[in-house]
Amino acid sequence: MARPRTFDEGIALDTAMRLFWRKGYEATSTRDLCETLGLDRSSVYNAFNSKHELFKRALTHYIETTTAAATEILDDHTRSPADRIRALFGRIIADEWANRHEDRNQGCLTVNTTVELAGRDPEIAALLDRDLRHRLSALQVVIGAGRAAGDITSRRDPADLARYVNSVIAGIRVAARGGAGRADLEAVAETAMDALTR
Amino acid sequence: MARPRTFDEGIALDTAMRLFWRKGYEATSTRDLCETLGLDRSSVYNAFNSKHELFKRALTHYIETTTAAATEILDDHTRSPADRIRALFGRIIADEWANRHEDRNQGCLTVNTTVELAGRDPEIAALLDRDLRHRLSALQVVIGAGRAAGDITSRRDPADLARYVNSVIAGIRVAARGGAGRADLEAVAETAMDALTR
DNA sequence: ACCGTTCTACACCGCTCGATGCAAAACCTG
DNA sequence: CAGGTTTTGCATCGAGCGGTGTAGAACGGT
């Protein structure tokens, strides 16, 4: 019926996501994006309407991917609950190294965006907030199970412990983006577990 | 000998710091700065040379202020070492609420800048790295003292524990900027202490 | 083979960016 | 009060920004 696309929208979205992830929203120009995607500006605007909408889709794509990976680990009933939290830390640290760019870790697009945009972009803030609630409730479920199973011995409210784990993850992400070494991040994660299994 | 300034450079620097803190480097234009400072652009450029140099000075000013406040707490020998770490968390959380803007926490300029610029601005990265080392060594000293005094019972390497505390602080800062409530942050801080006093 | 529709390439829009030039104003020194 | 120096106000610069208009190329349906 009409001329088909010469590019895969999903691949373009993933590539755009990685550029936003690395450079941030403001520092990524639409021309940067087009060059990286290998597409003309009119193609990008035709497919994604605006830089802001492209970013929203890229962030959503990141959240979906990250949530899927986290869910796979947190729902793995072959592991004990505490081990699942440990494995989540391990996966996050491994991903930092898998996604390095020019000897530098990228951190996490969610954390980066929270810092850069949450305070002045309500649409983005809403996306981030929804994702935060999902992560907190997923963590809380596992922590609750761990307390029932006895391998998470902290007597604190599981909601608080979930907040704590989530904050430590954010801290690890910031440290990674700040240039911390892998051993440093692993030590932070192991130490963080002590508060759950005390 | 010549016409004197009509403004206080220190106050201008502090005001600029607060604007960068709230909006980030890229999202703050030199025109924003001039309007907020109540100064003409030529005055700002005459005093600070460039946006980038102004930012470096603002960041340095922030680091000095923050370091002074943290040192005061961490060197307070009237408190036990563990209590000093606790007080540091408390101070950080209190400052988040003291510096709120339009019902939103600001986080920490150091964390925000690490996320936004550390990966692509070597000068800024060097400033942040130097500050990070100072903070880690200050924390490590207190943690070492706590272990000697017996109120920090974790057997982990004090350097790792210092990294851990610093990461938790970064995580709290991100959570604050993401809209977490005060009780949430306090729960994270209390939980984090459990890993030191287990 | 042609038509209708969509996509692509390229030029271009108005605007804002960081930064500068210049002349008038304001001060201190002598 | 005149001379020398710096600051200030305003205009302006080239570059890059996000976004658009348009003409023609590339397809699928008939």
From TrEMBL, chains A, B:
One Pfam family, short name please? TetR_C_13
Q: Give the source's domain of life in one word.
A: Bacteria
- Which protein, by its recorded name, is this? TetR family transcriptional regulator
- Gene3D superfamilies tied to this protein: Homeodomain-like, Tetracycline Repressor, domain 2
**Which positions make up the DNA-binding region?**
29-48
**Where in the numbering of this chain does the HTH tetR-type domain appear?**
6-66
Q: Which GO terms describe its molecular function?
A: DNA binding
InterPro entries in the cross-refs? Homeodomain-like_sf, HTH_TetR, Tet_transcr_reg_TetR-rel_C_sf, TetR_C
| Alphabetically ordered keywords of this record | DNA-binding, Transcription, Transcription regulation
